[in-house]
From TrEMBL:
PROSITE patterns: CHEB. This is protein-glutamate methylesterase. It comes from Pseudomonas khorasanensis. It comes from the Bacteria. CDD domains: CheB.
Length: 197
């Protein structure tokens, strides 16, 4: 991991995960304390036909407020937002969330690429994007786009991931700023918040 002084000032964090993602996210986000200032926006692939219980599950395990994303919802610091199954989640220029029904990307809706690219267009170099465990290619191109826009890119070490396909797909396209095990990513999120304060 780079030394803290070389880390950029970040205004928002986006995270993508698929197979194995619930366990990874609980490990990653559980230690974050109330008062954490950055918003965290997450796409986790889930079956479209099921109602998501992620907000309830994570609310019981975290100090931060956790919400299922709603259309036209303003993004608030210190809040975790989960994408709604069956809808793409994007960030609008006014820093609100948007839900849409465009075609699936990599057979997924919500798509990690869709979130990452829209957030990069809004936050540019003040965005941190994290790609975790998963069994398809979603997120790899979106992460590369974040890097092209000057954002900070972080990939879970494939050897640490429950399913290595997704992080490895990102590494096959472009070298991210950090390749870390899940606990290392958690420490990095804490450091990014310290710089933001």
């Amino acid at each position: 991991m780079n030394d803290t002084p070389s880390l950029p000032r970040i205004e928002a964090v986006v995270i993508g995960a698929s197979a194995g993602g619930v366990e990874a996210l609980l490990t990653l986000l559980g230690p974050l304390r109330r008062g954490y200032v950055l918003p965290i926006i997450i796409v986790l692939h889930l079956p479209e036909e099921r109602r998501s219980h992620l907000a309830e599950v994570f609310s019981r395990r975290m100090e931060l407020p956790v919400k299922e994303a709603e259309d036209k919802q303003d993004i608030q610091g210190g809040t975790v937002y989960f994408a709604t199954p069956g809808y793409h989640l994007s960030v609008e220029q006014d820093r609100s969330l948007s839900l849409s029904l465009e075609d699936r990307v990599h057979h997924s809706r919500p798509s990690i690429d869709y979130l990452f690219e829209s957030a990069a267009d809004v936050y540019g170099p003040t965005l941190a994007a994290v790609l975790l465990t998963g069994a398809n290619q979603d997120g790899a191109h979106g992460l590369a786009y974040v890097k092209r826009c000057g954002g900070l890119t972080i990939v879970q070490d494939p050897e640490d991931a429950q399913v290595a396909t997704m992080p490895q797909a990102a590494l096959n396209i472009q070298q991210p700023d950090h390749v870390l095990p899940i606990h290392g990513i958690g420490r990095l999120l804490v450091e990014l918040e310290r710089i933001a304060c």
